[in-house]
Amino acid sequence: MKQIRAAVIGFGGMGSKYVKMIYDGEVPGMCLAGVCCRNAKGQELLKKHYPRIPIYQSVDDAVTYSDAFDLAVIVTPHTSHVEIGLRMVQAGKHILMDKPTGVSAREVRQLHQAAAERQVSFGMIFNIRMAPAFRKAKELLDQGALGKLTRAVWLCNTWHRTPVYHHSAPWRSSWTGECGGLLINQSQHYLDIWQWLLGMPDQVLATLEYGKYNDFAVDDGGDIQFFYQNGLHGTFITSSGESPGLNRLDIWGTRGRMSIEDTARITLDENQIPTDEFAEINQEIYGILPHQLREIHTESAGNGYQKIFANYVDHLLRGTPLFANGTDGLNVVTMTNGIYLSSWQEQKIALPADETLFLKKLKEKQDNELL
Q1: Cα–Cα dist 89/171, whole Å
Q2: pTM for this model (two decimals)
Q3: Residue 27 belongs to a domain with what CATH number?
Q4: CA distances from residue 282 to 273, 277, 292 in whole angstroms, order as listed
């Protein structure tokens, strides 16, 4: 295999961008082999701008002609992600999926297992991981730059959305169509960064706000606490109804504090000696631990989507590890299910959450929305 033949499943907002990116040759080693689009308007656009590219009018149609492509890029409404992913995996196709991976951890785990059994690759389009500041933060944390981690606080309320956005598609911002709001949609990217940098939490306590800023029943704000057996305590605050927003992640450890602002600027405030060592030697009542702040240089940002797709090509052709794989997608959905269930039950719960109970409560939300 010298070139990856990609079929894009879905030609909406993001699907059309991926189609153009691949067609224009922005992903070396990948070519556009087909597009699955069910609506007539989209098909006309495809015929006009990509006249030689096959158009599949349904997933069944795409599966019928699956010998023509190696990889399915799945960019449909997320409630269909797992179903389409399973169809492609069963056809022996690699899959690269937009967020979120699915609605429940139970269904995502089935897809993950199916991909492993068929020995096909399962990647996630978590493009925010490609921000140089986050990649540098990951490198520093893995090197132990902060010592033993104790606290993390992320305020990320830069997701301001008006009714124009929420009404842009019939499935958006509803329990029946999207199975949630801010948490299952925008926050997926940052929940992925959280578990990538800090690991999977052991417990969660969540307070979500439902329809605080909008006339709908799903979540549009939240304060979430994550607890770890190793002593790390995290707070994740998010909203889609506030402006101007702020995006800042602070992580504390025995060796100091790391701050990441606007996914671009990273600073490290380093203690002269670790706090636990200072506690043993300090003899002053109000002893002050010296520390020094410095900004960490990072490379230019570039196109995160292009980098994710290029990495997938390198993975398939040369065995390069994936930047974001199906396990990451499963982790984020596991966190999401637990956050919702904690909010609904108004209590701290262990992760992974009770999947049967989560699905039962979700069904109740959907039924109430239809009344």
Answers
A1: 26
A2: 0.96
A3: 3.40.50.720
A4: 11, 9, 19
